User: What shape does this take?
Amino acid sequence: MLDWRWDFTWEILPRLLAATGNTLLAAGLGYAIAVVLGLVLALAQRTPLTVLTVAVREMVEFIRSTPLVLQIFFVFYVGPQFGIRLSPWTAGMIAIGLHYAAYLSEVYRGGLESVPKGQWEAARSLNLSTGRTYFRVILPQALPPSLAGMGNYLVGIFKDTPMLSVIGVAELMHTANAIGSQTYRFLEPFTLVGIIFLLISLPTAAAIRLFEGWVRRKLGMG
Assistant: This one.
C-alpha cells in the first residue's frame, strides 16, 4: 500500500510550484531561441551558396541525430576547454534552443516547400528583393501550415526541460529529486511533478490546436 503523506505534500508544494516557474522560463526562452534560429537555418539551406547549404544541412542532421542530454553536457563542460564559460542556465538555454532549432528548421522547410511555385514566380516578376519576397510573400503563406509542428515542439521542449538538471539547473525535476534526497521520500514529489507537467502540457496542446484552427479559418484554409 502506498504511504502517501498529505502533510508532506502540502509542505513541498510551494517549493515545486516555484521550480515550475523556472521550468516554464527555461522552456519559453529555449523555444524563443529555437523559433528564430530554426528559421535562420531553414533559409540558410535555400541559398545559392552550395557550400553554405550543405554545411547547414549536415549540421542540422548532426544535431537531430544526437541526444539532447549529450549536447547539454557538451556546451556546459566542453565549452570551457575552448574558452567559453557559461552558467548552467545560459548553457542549457543554448543547448535546448539549438537542438529544437534543428527540428523547427525542418518544419519551416516543409512550410516553405508547400508554397506554390507561382508565388515565387510572381515575386520575381515584380522584381522584389529576396528579403521582401520571403517576408512579404512566402513566409506569410508558409507559416500557417507549420503551426502544428511548431506547437508539437513547444510541448516537447517543455517535457525535455528536466534534462537541464544534469548540469544543476533548478527546474522542476531537479527540485523534486533534491527534495527526495533530503527527505528520503520520492513518492510525493515525483507524483506532483507528473501532475504539474500534465496540467501544463494538456491545456497547452489544446490551446495550440485552437490557435491553429483559428489561423486556418482566418486565412480560409479550412
